[in-house]
Amino acid sequence: MVDKLTPHLQKQSTYFREPLHVGLKLAVTLRFLATGNSYQSQQYSFRAEASTICKFIPEVCKAVIAVYKTNIVLTAVADASYKFPSVDIGAEGGASDGGTWSNCSLHDTVEDNRAGVPQPEPLPNDGQPVPYHFVGDDAFALRTWMMKPFSHRSQILRERIYSYRLSRARRVMENAFEILCQRFRCFFTTMQQNPDTINLITMCNRGK
Q: 41 near 47, Cβ under 8 Å?
């Protein structure tokens, strides 16, 4: 990672001082992302001033995004490999899942068939092509490409089976977030940074 990030982070030496090594900046940033500890606690471990740390952590996050980025849009979508091909950064905390989804750019690209969703493929041991779908909960509006469980209580047997199996598919999303938080424990804490820095931290973590 240091070799890939050096062109983006390396500072020039001056007459007054030598710049911090890229490896040190990366180590401090990864430690912060993994623990969520304050900048003040980091300065004693790495011998770098907290005022300096707060400046270069956003820079490192930007560099990581630039080097390792894929497709960043709005709202979180997880695939079967627990990866986030699309994420929502910066939506209002009080907004509902369905409202956030309806207002995000990914929703519009899916509606217009511009999202790059794979073509229908047969299921194992079957020759009938089946289209790919997004799986959501009851907060999302039903579409031809969006599957959601039945919401009424008096479900017949086949409806209960469908809702149960769909819920198992939705667990992938829940597990993906759990894996993300367990790996980068800064998401278990209340982040004290400004919103722009939090957006950078979130985008930096999403693909790792």
A: no
